[in-house]
Amino acid sequence: MKEILKVLEQDARTTPEQIAIMTGKSLAEVKEVIREAERDRTIIKYKTIVNWDKLGEEQVWALIEVKVSPQRDVGFDAMAERIYRFPEARTVYLVSGTYDLAVFVTGKTMQEVAAFVAEKLASLDSVQGTVTHFLLKRYKEDGEILVDRGERGERLAISP
């Protein structure tokens, strides 16, 4: 099962026929593993990573650190759920350190992200504080390099 899932994780467009050839498993077995993994949510979603910068599509990304008061009997889970239900919240993690939750947010402008933090996030009862970090440039996402070689500003080799 893991071998099949690793292939799909690398490239979700790989067909069951290709996976069967790559893994030496039967086509029926590959299809059943995929079907079961989708059914039990081992496979949660098939995803495409788009480099919107190449299309001139402005997006503002921010990492927001959130300090919250855990609630009796549910800890941080109930608060995390309230936050991940906001459409602006793209990713929510429970983290160790000074802050409890790391929330990745996208918006069209910095003001839109700031409004989300001020009006929706910071106003929640259990939120004790937030720190917002605006992402200035994305170099790599989900294991995929987003910048072209020419964009990295590589130095020319020094020759004698």
Report on this structure.
The structure is a single chain. This protein is an alpha+beta fold and 160 residues long. It has 5 helices and 6 strands. α2 (16-23) packs across α3 (27-39).
Number of strands: 6
Q: In percent, how much strand structure appears in the residues? A: 15-25%
Name the CATH homologous superfamily of the largest domain.
Lrp/AsnC effector binding domain/regulation of amino acid metabolism (RAM) domain
Number of domains: 2
Structural class determined from secondary elements: alpha+beta
List keywords for this structure.
5 helices, 2 domains, 160 residues, single chain, two-stranded antiparallel ribbon, four-stranded antiparallel beta sheet, alpha+beta, Alpha-Beta Plaits, extended
Task: Give the topology.
Layout: H1 2-10, H2 16-23, H3 27-39, E1 60-68, H4 77-84, E2 89-94, E3 101-107, H5 110-121, E4 127-135, E5 140-141, E6 144-145
Antiparallel strand pairs: 1-3, 1-4, 2-3, 5-6
Helix pairs in contact: 2-3
